[in-house]
Amino acid sequence: MLKLKLEALGHPTPADVSLSNRKEFASTILWLEDQKIRLYTIEDREKLRNIDNPKMWEEGYLKYKADLNMPSLESQQEELAWILSHAVRLEFLDDPEQFASINSKQNSAQTNGKQTQQKIQSIFDGKINVQDKAFIDGVRLLASKLNVPHHPNHLLQLEAVARIVHERLSPAARGRQPIVGTPFPFDKGNDIVSSNDPALDLPMRILRLLQIQSLRQLQTHINETIVAVQNITANPKTDTKLGKVGR
Amino acid sequence: MVVRPYNDELKYLEKISDHCWRIKKGFQPNMNVEGCFYVNSRLERLMLEELKNSCRPGAVGGFLPGVKQIANVAALPGIVGRSIGLPDIHSGYGFAIGNMAAFDMDDPLSVVSPGGVGFDINCGVRLLRTNLYERDVQPVKEQLAQSLFDHIPVGVGSKGIIPMNARDLEEALEMGMDWSLREGYVWAEDKEHCEEYGRMLNADPAKVSMRAKKRGLPQLGTLGAGNHYAEIQVVDEIYDKWSASKMGIEEKGQVVVMIHSGSRGFGHQVATDALVQMEKAMKRDKIETNDRQLACARINSVEGQDYLKAMAAAANFAWVNRSSMTFLTRQAFAKMFNTTPDDLDMHVIYDVSHNIAKVENHIVDGKERKLLVHRKGSTRAFPPHHPLIPVDYQLTGQPVLVGGTMGTCSYVLTGTEQGMQETFGSTCHGAGRALSRAKSRRNIDYKEVLEKLDQIGIAIRVASPKLVMEEAPESYKDVTDVVDTCHAAGISKKCIKMRPIAVIKG
């Protein structure tokens, strides 16, 4: 994630920023202040410039954190993450117009939420007000019982709950034969996940597996349809009298 | 053809990695792109020797050496990327067998060439698995081979035992494997595990000559002659346990059946008819090629489109053919073991085509482009998560079935991302000839060949034993060399090795 933010800010070598090295960290902070945040005037950045003198630099950094109003964080990684987010925010506020097109996608996500609302509303046939506090509390409670992660939109959360109930708890699911055979280990496929960032690797694998699962369902439906048709049309014949072995 | 001394020819060739050579422009006239070929040290020697022999003064007649053919293909209009030779390459009509080339569909000058598909259109390999083990089959091997031989007619002039009339054939040409499904010869899951889902949608039987249909009708459901065969094989080695398990191969010793066949006389006639048409089109459109055998037509011309539609019909014929033989194989096994094909778990692992031209999307120079990909003696090998491979193989990559030579071994490989980038998702198809048919007939005695097979415990049923030396292992390159080269070059990955215990041949 840090790498992505550095990339977005146009850092020259986003892949090489290592957190183990304090000096590397210091130079990244300086780069952010010089290029993006510009909290101080150029003269005031003098202390931060002392990357080769750790004592001076740490002093300057302590003051810098206070001046940025950074909350007290525990690790160097968290601090960098916070400063990066801050820089991204400043960058965005410089010219929000430039990112307007990206907003449209968020809009579609919102309309998606609206659709969910309408869909659920129609299921309840207007008999229940889905925005009612009691309803929301009920969904949240149900979600926490089923370990569904929190989502700001309780209706999306309700959809997730419905899915779990459908796949795990419904009578049909309970009566289903358990899947036999050796499971295919998650990470043993020949597929390469292009990112070398483990924080992206895992979610990508999960998304791909979900995609494969839904494709499998589709293919199974197709096969079932073919078999249903075969029950009507199939009439395989052979006639050994026709056969002739060549020379 | 340019004739230069061998040492001058070598200046145009450059070894760019352990397993890949570059053919520079100028090796043959008018090359639009460079060529390349994949070899290991042994195959490299064969390649260069062939070139050397053709450079001797007074060497005339026969096919051009493979390297020259790759370069001639690189001179065809509209070719993109590189003209690629796979490790099993050997000289063929126009294109070498084991040469793949892609042409830009959006370039109006791009061509389609029947020589780039081959005469046996959609020749391919299908692999069926069973839940039997070697110990179950060894005692009844001879009977099983005989039973297969009785069910699947083989040899030149053989006729199939599935009754068909002219109307059935028309429908089969249009529908491909869907016809076999409708008639109940195959299972729904077979379609899923077949390249192109066993049906090319642009097939048009009206573009196929009467002559081709007449030749094709009685031959449906027959294996044919030449290098075609049906083999009962046992799993000898598993290199990639997880991918193998996705294919239903759990342990060494498991029995599988490999069927290698194509579109018989039907495809041959379609190709022959097209070549005549294309020569006319070349004259009209002033298309120049380095070799007369590289007859071609613009993709968008009438001749080009007619050929693609007829070729698709021939491809459908081949799938129906392999499906019919799948049905017959299942029958033979079920009778022998007194059970049903279902209980023997006789599923199709995969079905590959290795003589075909297909429209595919590939990334060329960072941009997605629509290409007409010719694969002649080359198998498609798509990487994991490619939308055109079955859902069951999304994590492993497409299975690539590589049939060996009679009496040697066969392999299953999987497609890789690197292959997608370097070779348009293509890899080798088999062993590849080292001696011409005529030469093998002269040099090898058929009785010896049969004895040798008997000694290593392979049951064999063959329709014309006197031609069997054409297919003797000595006539071919070593399939293990070929497969190892593809694996080492990274264009596909080794998964399973099988060895035969019974062979049915034409």
UniProtKB/TrEMBL annotation, chain A:
Record Pfam families: RLL
InterPro entries on file: RTRAF
Name of this chain's protein: RNA transcription, translation and transport factor protein
Organism: Drosophila ananassae
Gene: Dana\GF17173
Automatic annotation (TrEMBL), chain B:
PROSITE patterns: UPF0027 (PS01288)
UniProt cross-references to Gene3D superfamilies, sorted A to Z: tRNA-splicing ligase RtcB
TM region positions: none
Protein residues bound to Mn(2+) 2: 123, 260, 354
Binding site for GMP: 227-231, 354-355, 403-406, 410, 429-432, 505
Leading EC class: ligase
Keywords: GTP-binding, Ligase, Manganese, Metal-binding, Nucleotide-binding, tRNA processing
GO cellular component, one term: tRNA-splicing ligase complex
UniProt-listed GO biological process terms: positive regulation of tRNA processing; tRNA splicing, via endonucleolytic cleavage and ligation
Catalyzed reactions per annotation: a 3'-end 3'-phospho-ribonucleotide-RNA + a 5'-end dephospho-ribonucleoside-RNA + GTP = a ribonucleotidyl-ribonucleotide-RNA + GMP + diphosphate; a 3'-end 2',3'-cyclophospho-ribonucleotide-RNA + a 5'-end dephospho-ribonucleoside-RNA + GTP + H2O = a ribonucleotidyl-ribonucleotide-RNA + GMP + diphosphate + H(+)
Statement: the UniProt record of this protein carries the keyword GTP-binding: yes
Active-site residues per Swiss-Prot or TrEMBL entry: 429
Stored InterPro entries: RtcB (IPR001233), RtcB-like_sf (IPR036025), RtcB_euk (IPR027513)
Pfam family, one: RtcB
EC number(s) from the headed UniProt entry: 6.5.1.8
Positions annotated to bind Mn(2+) 1: 120, 123, 228
Entry GO MF terms: GTP binding; metal ion binding; RNA ligase (ATP) activity; RNA ligase (GTP) activity
Entry note: cofactor: Binds 2 manganese ions per subunit.
Family to which this protein belongs: Belongs to the RtcB family.
Subunit relationships: Catalytic component of the tRNA-splicing ligase complex.
Further details from the record: Ligation probably proceeds through 3 nucleotidyl transfer steps, with 2',3'-cyclic phosphate termini being hydrolyzed to 3'-P termini in a step that precedes 3'-P activation with GMP. In the first nucleotidyl transfer step, RTCB reacts with GTP to form a covalent RTCB-histidine-GMP intermediate with release of PPi; in the second step, the GMP moiety is transferred to the RNA 3'-P; in the third step, the 5'-OH from the opposite RNA strand attacks the activated 3'-P to form a 3',5'-phosphodiester bond and release GMP.
Stated role: Catalytic subunit of the tRNA-splicing ligase complex that acts by directly joining spliced tRNA halves to mature-sized tRNAs by incorporating the precursor-derived splice junction phosphate into the mature tRNA as a canonical 3',5'-phosphodiester. May act as an RNA ligase with broad substrate specificity, and may function toward other RNAs.
UniProt protein name: RNA-splicing ligase RtcB homolog
Encoding gene (name): Dana\GF14042
